[in-house]
Amino acid sequence: MESPTFVRFQLGAQLRKAREQADVTAEEAAAAIEVTASTLRRIEAGRVGIKGPALNALLDRYRVTDAELRDTLLSMARAGKQRGWWAKYGDLPSSYRQYIGLESAAEEVQTFETLVVPGLLQTPAYSRAMMAEDAFEPSPEAVERRVAVRTHRQELISSGKLRLVAVLDEAVLHRQIGGAAVMADQLTALLDAGSRWNVTVQVIPFREGAYASMLSSFHILNFADGPSVVYIEGLTGDLYAEGEDVRRCTVVFNSLRAAALSPTDSAAMIEAIRGALPVE
């Protein structure tokens, strides 16, 4: 069953495409359903759903007469109102909930990280140490809820429902988040993950020097039914991109994999760094 977030995201993309083809501005479309332009953009971004009457009004404004297409979009609107497992964690940022929903519908995630271990591969202790340093000082209870969410996300990997290709800068392996013992366990978890059929871990060594996108982490989510999406997390907001941006990021990701060590050599580096950690 497709994630409701994924359905909303795809519905929003279809509505944005229909609006642009009809040469209707966001302000004009928003007026047609009596909402603000910012609300319309949230609908088009898949952050919120849309009810049947409002959807029909938009499709009328966009001059969409294809009955089959209209029925499909109405079905998507109904499916998008369902709740995913992450909905019970009400204090999660909406952007994070949206990402979890898309991730749960993906068949493959290609991720590049320059500073930290990807969330899908983090141990609870590593996650806890990272979240405890949040500048907004979350309560211990809030930290534990976030760790629980991250652990739940990792079931996609353990169940084999998701393929993960992770490229890491060597710096990720040296940054002792949580201390040497936590980091040693995290490196062991990376080695264990890399031995799974559905996980590939590659490391770009320091000796590689400068390389493509070394200042920006990103994630490419590929779906069995629907176009791929690029996700880039930012301090002041998250960016989702499709189309040509996905193609460019895929070219960059392939370049990163070429610059990285092979999975076997990457595992050897991880093991060596783990072995050099001080015993606490």
TrEMBL record:
Residues 15-69 form the HTH cro/C1-type domain. It comes from the Bacteria. SMART domains: HTH_XRE. This is Transcriptional regulator with XRE-family HTH domain.
